[in-house]
Design a protein that fits this description.
The structure is a single chain. By secondary structure, this protein is of the alpha/beta class. It contains ten helices and 36 strands. The strands form seven sheets. The protein has an eight-stranded parallel beta barrel, surrounded by five helices. Strands 21, 26, 28, 31, 34 and 36 form a six-stranded antiparallel beta sheet that branches. The longest helix has 15 residues. It is globular, with a radius of gyration of 27 Å.
């Protein structure tokens, strides 16, 4: 059986550490190389983990993303008597049918998506443990409410899927209840919500065989794997003996406290030779966070269960400017004697972006070219490698930003008299001004540059290392008199997303137009109406001269003016958590 939550967190608290990512990002072209993906196989190489997936998780997400594991199994979801969901009694996920996790770990959904930019192809949440209660609560709730849209379980798991689109599957770690009618109903409900399900068994093979069979008879393909514990309470289990689920593969798991990577490889190889297992998993990531063993254990399983094939590795993020080019590196690695020819193809591109795959042999590159009006924003790109019946994929993010330049259309608004924040610093600068957000963080002048050209419109920034940004507090800024089609801002929210803020443009005839706009936090783009990606950056600076190597953003906002009236001024939002860095008036097109 799985060790209890308390046992698990003793390990977690001693092992968890915050590790800074050390990949070097070039100006507006960031490339972090992912580790090898799974070998040519049809199953999953999984890793169970708890707190490291959501507590101070940035370095841990990077490690697993690049580890070679293809399934991340986040453990353990607890189900309360009312149906509320939480991780380990410390991270509330849902309440009353609504997702509440953003109040606790707002980066968690994006972290789960980031995992799948690397070697991870499936994100699974595990329900239950050796502790009593979760599955009994599920049984009681189903007996009382059923599993239809009106039931709390349906609403909570629907809210979970909506909030975390990267979530693919639910692991059934029922070690006490074993109520087949409600477990089957629950599995079918999850299948109808778009989840796959996997039993997490350590004994009673006949019970789990029946559960899988019944779920798939009602909704074929819902149960598409079995996690078999071959450690702790399941020690001595052999996936080749007594655990036949027909066409549904069994993925046996081992525990790092019992087996080294070489021992895992030896055991998994034996099972692969005996009955052809195509995957497996490790318990428990919390034991070896950040010490390099994750990649070693993943490699051990991949080597044991893999057939001749190839892997793809390469760029994690590519930053592309309008009117420019950028490259993504792709490396093909032959595995287990593979000597075939690999053909690469690329998924659909954003509007205004072209791409070509260049090179031969095992080193290739994708060359992206953006027009001056290419759609800005983030797109998940997929490179697919094909050789006969073997297919591998590599995902990475393409971020398109405004062009770097000094010429463009528009009448720039002079904000210098309102500058009250030091929001832009050159890399490596040590400062004590509080930066953009008051907490010491700022935009990188090296990445932002002195000016940008968004769809042909010029924006010039204030001087780096000085007052250069406007923390809004209802200031009125004088505009150059004249008729214009629109006012554009390059701005951001800080300290969270800032919803429904008011700007007012006054005209010389005494009339005015009010606008209501929501502003995304510089770390969490929400794609609000009227908001576009202005500049995506591979890091931000901290006041001790270091970098926070995550992606940060500066957004573009367009406010349509009355082209028949001459403008006088704009009154900015009365909210210091909205920051404006540049503004330009666009001419009327004739």
């Amino acid at each position: 059986m799985q060790p209890s939550i308390r046992m698990r967190f003793v390990s977690c608290y001693h092992q968890l550490s915050i590790v800074r990512v050390t990949a070097i990002f070039l100006l507006l072209l960031a490339v972090a190389f992912s580790a090898e993906a799974a070998f040519a196989q049809t199953g999953y190489t999984g890793i169970f983990g708890g707190g490291p997936f959501y507590k101070n998780a940035s370095a841990n997400i990077t490690e697993i993303e690049n580890s070679g594991f293809t399934e991340a199994i986040v453990w353990s979801v607890e189900v309360s008597t009312t149906g509320d969901l939480n991780f380990n009694g410390e991270f509330p996920l849902t309440s009353g049918g609504a997702y509440v996790g953003d109040s606790y770990y707002p980066n968690f959904p994006s972290d789960m998506a980031t995992l799948k930019l690397g070697t991870v192809k499936r994100v699974t949440f595990s329900i239950g443990s050796s502790n009593y209660g979760d599955w009994e609560n599920i049984t009681n709730l189903i007996n009382a409410q059923g599993t239809g849209p009106g039931s709390i379980l349906y609403q909570d798991f629907q809210a979970l899927k909506t909030a975390i689109p990267a979530l693919d599957a639910i692991d059934f770690d029922d070690e006490n209840s074993f109520n087949s009618p409600t477990t089957i109903s629950f599995g079918v409900m999850l299948g109808n919500l778009g989840y796959h399900v996997l039993p997490d068994a350590f004994d009673d093979s006949s019970y789990w065989t029946n559960v899988v069979s019944q779920i798939n008879s009602q909704l074929p393909g819902t149960a598409d794997g079995v996690h078999l514990q071959a450690y702790a309470g399941g020690a001595g289990n052999n996936p080749c003996v007594g655990w036949n689920f027909g066409t549904v593969p069994v993925f046996p798991g081992l525990w790092d406290l019992n087996d080294t990577p070489s021992q895992v490889q030896s055991t998994m190889t034996g099972w692969h030779n005996q009955c052809g297992i195509v995957g497996g998993f490790m318990w428990l990531y919390d034991d070896f966070v950040g010490n390099g063993l994750a990649a070693q254990y993943a490699s051990a399983i991949n080597t044991a269960v893999g057939a001749p094939g190839f892997t793809l590795s390469g760029s994690r993020n590519v930053f592309l400017n309008q009117s420019a080019t950028a490259n993504a590196s792709i490396t093909i690695t032959d595995v287990n004697g593979f000597n075939g020819t690999v053909t690469l193809s690329l998924s659909s591109l954003p509007k205004g972006v072209r791409a070509s795959i260049q090179g031969t042999g095992n080193t290739r590159k994708v060359v992206f070219t953006a027009s001056s009006s290419a759609s800005t924003g983030f797109t998940t790109m997929t490179v697919t490698g094909t050789s006969g019946t073997i297919t591998q994929t590599l995902n990475f993010t393409l971020a398109v930003s405004a062009a770097v330049g000094t010429t463009g259309t528009g009448t720039e608004v002079n904000l210098s008299s309102e500058f009250n924040l030091n929001g832009i610093y050159t890399d490596g600068t040590i400062y004590s001004t509080g930066g953009l957000d008051g907490g010491g963080y700022s935009y990188s002048a090296n990445l932002l540059t002195t000016s940008r050209v968004f769809n042909g419109t010029l924006f010039t920034f204030g001087p780096a290392n000085e007052l250069d940004a406007v923390g809004c507090s209802g200031q009125t800024v004088t505009l150059t008199p004249g008729t214009f089609s629109s006012l554009m801002l390059l701005a951001t929210g800080i300290e969270g997303n800032q919803a429904s803020k008011t700007l007012t443009v006054k005209y010389t005839d005494g009339t005015s137009t009010k606008f209501t706009q929501s502003f995304s936090d510089w770390f969490t783009p929400k794609k609000y109406s009227g908001e576009s990606e202005g500049v995506a950056m591979a890091y931000r600076n901290f006041d001790n001269g270091t970098k926070d190597r995550r992606t940060f953003n500066l957004y573009a906002y367009t406010f349509t003016l009355n082209p028949a009236k001459s403008v006088k001024s704009v009154t900015l939002p009365n909210d210091t958590h909205v920051v404006v860095l540049a503004a330009t008036l666009l001419p009327v097109k004739h």
